User: Fold this.
Amino acid sequence: MPVAKDHANLPKVIYNKKRIALLKKAGNRLARTYVRVARALRNHTLRAFSLGLLLTLLAICLDWGGKLVSIERLFYDRRARFCQFFTPAPIDKLVHVDIDDAALEEIGRWPWPRTTLGEIVDELRLAGADALALDILLTEPEPPNFVRRHDGSFEIVDHDANLSAALKKFGRMMVPVTFDFTSRPPPTPQFFRAGQNSA
Assistant:
């Protein structure tokens, strides 16, 4: 009986050995495939990194030499035309306030006192303007002067302070700025002596 029992289990044992051998063979093949894929992926990553670094250095050199300006302008125009889907449409409610001959006849010759400019800014603010851009260069300070009141008395008017207060009250202002980079000779000793005497 025991011998018959062993013979009965013999095909199962042989089947298990074959299965183990097949699994080992498949495992070895899978391991070799994994090694080949990992090696190819590593080589591909190294090549991609080298190519990206080379292209980045090339772009930096071309940009430093000014060779990409025309291309950038071309692509900027295309981006501004076709890719600004979420940018609100420009407003068409713009008012251009001109200093023309009629204004000069009404207010007086140019330049107007800055207090007058401040009154115009206040009028535009009260009219409901959202923003204001001044295209007037005020390069020199305007000294205060005496202005006659309706009752005949005089008062000192600080024109720069009045315009500054009107601009601050408006809030949303754009004013032009100019920079003078002209090289000038250093002050002479007479200049320093005059400053010390005036002090």
The helical segments are 2-64, 69-82, 101-107, 114-126, 159-170, 189-198. The CA atoms of residues 19 and 25 lie 10 Å apart.
